[in-house]
Amino acid sequence: LWTTANIIDDSIARVREQVGTDQVMLGLSGGVDSSVVAALLHKAIGDQLTCVFVDHGLLRYKEGDQVMAMFAENMGIKVIRADVEDRFMEALAGETDPEKKRKIIGHEFIEVFDAESAKLKGVKWLAQGTIYPDVIESAGSKTGKAKVIKSHHNVGGLPEDMEMSLIEPLRELFKDEVRKLGVALGLPYNMVYRHPFPGPGLGVRILGEVKKEYADILRLADNIYIEELVKWDLYEKTSQAFTVFLPVKSVGVVGDARRYDYVVALRAVETIDFMTARWAHLPYDFLEHVSGRIINEIPRISRVVYDVSSKPPATIEWE
Ligand code: XMP
Question: So what's the architecture of 205-306 in CATH?
């Protein structure tokens, strides 16, 4: 029978049989798929698993610490955190083209990941959170937007200099099954059902050149937006919601002082497949409240706008 409990038992048995006493490595992003693989492998092989978590400084508010708290502290999983914000900011300096930014982020990611994995001795297996739709997708043409680590090492095989075999315990599962597995394995509901987050992270939500200063401002605004969506019971009614940093300045006034600061856009969409999407008709009261909080609480933001573009013709992300 194809129940969550059976899938878990079956996967654990298969993993144990496959890897025996070998060491296994996993690229942990904090996203649902790699998180579920981490929980599953930890249950199957315990300390034989080491995760590598690349914190590129383009993650959401406190996300890096949350990933560490969850996996390393709570679950006792071995996680190596590569804090490489500076390196990514340097690599991205001066670049404004969206696809080139994606390439830079992807390239740096692989470099860091490979460097960290080279430090681990005697690892024979590379685990990945490939799920069934990824398998299908890579059979056809690739859009270049696929998750970095996946498009690199993915289904097609490993780079030649990496003598590791692939282990992909979620390869036959759909997203909803992966989520159920995650909950059954003890991962928190709000992590398992979190909105999707692109591989290049805030790198494609800061329009034009990426700077740490912008990322820090964006994280604060986005955190307020998401926090309020949850409070107003709107988070689960939207498929994806986030804040975009616009590197233009707009005039405002606080008390009797004029201010001249940045603009952020709020985005929220409803979609089933992310191929088409409708902009979410969030209540005006809600938008008013969020905009007020963002402008009042974040000194460098003077204006908030709401994105009323559906896909097509607009994409969900702004870049
Ligand atoms: P778009 O903007 O293409 O987004 O309408 C559709 C979905 O894909 C996500 N997305 C990405 N995911 N790397 C990713 O891993 C990317 O470069 C990327 N670009 C877009 C986006 O967040 C949305 O869920």
Answer: 2-Layer Sandwich (3.30)
250 is in an annotated binding site: no
Complex ipTM, two decimals? Answer: 0.99
Same topology for domains 4-192 and 205-306, yes or no?
A: no
DSSP characters over 168-222: -TTTT--HHHHHHHHHHTT--HHHHTPPP--TTGGGGTB-SS--HHHHHHHHHHH
Compute the distance from residue 163 Cα to the ligand 1 centre, in Å.
31
Which pLDDT band, with edges at 50, 70 and 90, does 142 fall under?
Answer: very low
Please tell me whether 129 is known to bind a ligand.
no
Ligand 1: residues within 6 Å at CB?
102, 145, 147, 196, 198-200, 240, 274, 311, 315-317
135 is in an annotated binding site: no
| Contact present, 244 and 267 (Cβ < 8 Å) | yes
* Whether domain 4-192 has CATH 3.90.1530.10: no
Answer for the pair 108, 88: CB distance below 8 angstroms, yes or no. Answer: yes
